[in-house]
Amino acid sequence: DDLGLLPQPSKPRFQTALVGIYVRSQPFGGSDKSSNGHRYDTIPFANGMISAGMSCQLIHYVHQEHAKFFDVVQNFQALIVRCNPGQIKADGGDQGKFDDSMRAIRKAGIQVWPSPDVMEFMGAKDALCKIADMSIGLEDTLAYYDEAAFSAGFKKTMAFQPRVIKQNRGSSGEGIWIIKLKS
Questions:
Q1: pLDDT tens string 18-54
Q2: Omega before 114 within 30 of 0, i.e. cis
């Protein structure tokens, strides 16, 4: 269901695709999906591309049709990959096979955002910690790997402002809490 998707431009500046994964064993295709089977941000992403004069086709990766899928995506100039880590495996596919094929697509000159290598590096929960000291980061972004460090560090930073906590697993928006001091 592509309800809300703008019409594709008749003469697009670029031909792009937004790649998703529908986990058939999960309601709506995964906990990050709306009732239409797409991630909540899929239609706005695609409409942004369309509004900029590019076509943006919404396509789902189906691991049983791996070769056919990668034959089709060779016809695009760019791919936006919106497959959460673990969902390809949850649907019975092989994440490594998918990533290797995306690397081959990039090598052929087709843009892939994000690339599997960027996902591997930046997809980790401590990715925001890695950029904390950069101009785009927040210097008080921290990761805790044991209970003692969490107890000491969290109490210290909590005294100054609300905190966002993300557990070190999952990537579909589960396990995120905003913590504020009581008034």
A1: 999 999 999 998 888 888 889 889 999 999 999 999 9
A2: yes
